Write the C-alpha cells for this entry.
Amino acid sequence: MITITSIGQVAEHYDIAVVGAGPAGLAAAARAAELGLSVLLADENPAPGGQIYRAVTTTPVTPRAVLGEDYWKGGALVERLKPTTTAYAPGCTIWSVAPDEAGGFELGLSLGGQARLIAAGQVILATGAQERPFPIPGWTLPGVMTAGAAQIALKASGLVPSGRTVIAGCGPLLYLLAGQLAAAGANIVAVLDTTPRRNWLAAIAAFPDFLRSPYLAKGLKLMAAARGKLPFKTGVTALAAEGSGKLTGVTVTRGGAAETIPCDALLLHQGVIPGINLANAAGCAQHFDAVQHCWTPTVDGWFASSIPGIAIAGDGAGIGGAESAALRGEVAALDAARRLGRLAEAERDAHAAPIRAELARSLRGRRFLDLLYRPAPHFLAPPADETIVCRCEEVTAGQIRDAASRLGVTGPNQMKAFLRCGMGPCQGRLCGPTVVELIAQERGVSAEETGYYRLRPPVKPVTLSELAALPPTDAAIKAVVR
C-alpha cells in the first residue's frame, strides 16, 4: 500500500478507482490489486476503516472490550491491503465521476487543498452508509448530536460526552453505542427506544431466518449487556430537546404521558441508509427500497450500477452490515477485473462462488432487522411545524408543508426553487429523506412517487482556488458545470 499525501503523487490513470476505505472499499482494493490491477483507493478520512472501523489503526481506545471484538476485525482488512501496490489517498475528496472519451471515467478529486482530474478504467463506489435524519424540536441545540457522531469521537479520539447523557432512537446501533459509551465511562442516564411496537407484527414473518442468522447471538449479547446495566425506556412516541442556547433536557412522551429528563448531551439515531449522493450525481439509477424505507442505487448481482463500469459495493448499495460490505466489495472487484480483461468470465465466477455463499450467510436475517427497526412515520416526517428540517438553509417542516399544499410543490427538486432545501454544503444528505417524507405525507402519495433530488457534481464543497487551479481544458470545465 502506497500512501499518497499530495496531489502531485496521484497518477494520471488507474485501472480501478475505489471511493471509500471502509470494509467494502478496503476489500475491493485489495482484491483488485492482488489481481495485478493498478488501484487508487481514495478516502476522505485521515485513516482507513470507514465508519464502522473508523480509526482502527490509530484509535487511542486500547482496551479491546470497550469497542468490542467486531470492531477490531477491521484491522485484518487493512493488513491485507498493506502488501499490495494500492495507491491509498487519505484526506481525499472525490467530487465528480463522469464518463470520459476513452470509454472509462474521469474523476474530480481534491487533496491537500488542490484539485485534479484523473482517469480510471473502472470505478467502485464504496461510499457506505449515513445515519437517517432524525429531526425533532430542538435538535439544532448545542449538546444534541447523532449517535454516529458520538461513536466517531469515541473511536477517533477516545472522547465521550460530558455530563448526563441520553441516547434516543431505534436500531441495533442504539444498543451497541450505549454499551461502548458506558464501557468508556460515559454517564448514561437514559436510553429511549422509539421502536414502534406494531413493527413486531410486520417483522414476525422474517423471524425464522433471523433465528438462523449471525445477527441473533450478537443481538442478544448487545441487548443483554445494555439492558442489564442501563436505564431503558421503551414505547417512546415523541421527543423534544429542551433548552435556551444549549441543551438542558429532553421531553419524552410514552403512553400519552410526558416527562422531561434533565441532560447535558442527547444522542439521536434512527438507523442508517445508503450514502447515495455520489452515485446519484454520477447518473446511476436508484429506486425506493420499501423494506429499508430509503432510496437505494439499483445494482445487479455483481453490484454493477446502471452505468457500465461503475459498481456500488457495501452499504452504499443497500444496508447489510460490515461483514457483508467487505464481501460485496470483493464481488464487485472481481467483476471489474473481468470487464478490464484481467479475468475470464469462468475465472470470475469460480473466485466469486465461495464469497457469494458467505455473503448469503451474512445477510440472512437482515430483513427482520429492517422491518423491526423501521422508524415511525411521525419521526420520519416531524409533526411540529417549527422543527428545522434543512439545517443548511434553516427551512422548517411547516414551510415545506406549506409549499407542498398551498404552492403545489410535488417533489424535492421543485422544492429547491422555493425554499433552497438541499442546496447547502451537505447537498441534501441531512434533509433529503425528510423533505421527501413531508411532501409525500402532505400530498397523500408514496415516497417513491415523490422522487428524490437530482444531484450534480461537485457533490462536495470545492473552493474556487481549487477549481481555478484545474488545467483550462474542456474536460475540466465540464467537470464543474455538467
